[in-house]
């Protein structure tokens, strides 16, 4: 498992970038040009956001002929949820044992 | 400098438990490896001072190892740790008197991993990581 929590959180914290991500979760693979048509930012800015989302493992790029299409990827958010679940239940068990030991 | 050790921002889980024992007893069960190993469920060694080493070897889990980051006797201890292939995290345990007993709170926070180290993973205490976190946020 390889989450970089900082880049993941940073990727989610920008409103425009979050909007780009939200669009991708609703649509299939789309190009930066398609996204720029729907959002009030330049295609260049969209590409920058897509690259940041890609670095955080939230989107994947696919070459489709001459075009690049972008697709939502749930991987790193799933990893994060799994991490919280695993580590949380580890501490639940440890603290239960500590209580049994002490009380 | 951003005080990441006192106020870790990022992804964390937190658990609390009320105990009947006084702070001194709870503290001993945190900082004496042979006592802590019982409830941490493994062979544990800990040197409870800043820079001290901590390791836990459990029968059915990978070895976890790290460094003690902060110690306030009977109140709070922090360490950073990781497994060989796992993600580095910061563990912060706090003991607060409550009635005749105590409330213990543990918080574990994911640390940035794209730092130095031969395998691309973080190594060493959090102090060396705080700057990297800033870089990664600014990027």
Can I get a quick summary?
With 103 residues, chain A is mainly alpha-helical. Chain A has helices spanning 5-13, 15-26, 32-38, 43-55, 75-102, and strands spanning 59-64, 67-72. The longest helix of chain A is centred in the C-terminal third of the chain and has 28 residues, at 75-102.
List the helices and strands and how they pair.
The complex is a heterodimer of chains A (103) and B (139).
Chain A: H1 5-13, H2 15-26, H3 32-38, H4 43-55, E1 59-64, E2 67-72, H5 75-102
Chain B: E1 12-19, H1 23-31, H2 33-40, E2 43-46, E3 53-57, E4 64-72, E5 76-82, E6 89-98, E7 101-110, H3 127-138
Antiparallel strand pairs in B: 1-7, 2-3, 3-4, 4-5, 5-6, 6-7
Helix pairs in contact in B: 1-2
Q: Main beta sheet of chain A, described? A: 2 strands, antiparallel
Quote the beta fraction of chain A: 5-15%
Number of domains of chain A: 1
Which regions of chain B are unreliable across 5 or more consecutive residues at pLDDT < 50? 1-8, 114-122, 127-139
Strand content of chain B: 35-45%
Q: Helix- and strand-based class of chain A? A: mainly alpha
Low-confidence stretches of chain A: none
Using the CA coordinates, give the radius of gyration of chain B.
15 Å
**Outline of chain A:** elongated
What is the share of helical residues of chain B? 10-25%
**In CATH, what is the class of chain B?**
Alpha Beta
Q: According to CATH, what is the topology of chain A?
A: Arc Repressor Mutant, subunit A
Q: Give, in order, the helices and strands of chain B.
A: EHHEEEEEEH
Morphology of chain B = globular
The biggest beta sheet of chain B, please? 7 strands, antiparallel
Mean pLDDT, all residues of chain B = 79
Which architecture name of chain A does CATH use? Orthogonal Bundle
Going by helix content, strand content and strand pairing, the class of chain B is alpha+beta
User: Would you identify the CATH H-level superfamily of chain B?
Assistant: START domain
Please, what is the oligomeric state?
A: heterodimer
Distance between the termini of chain A: 37 Å
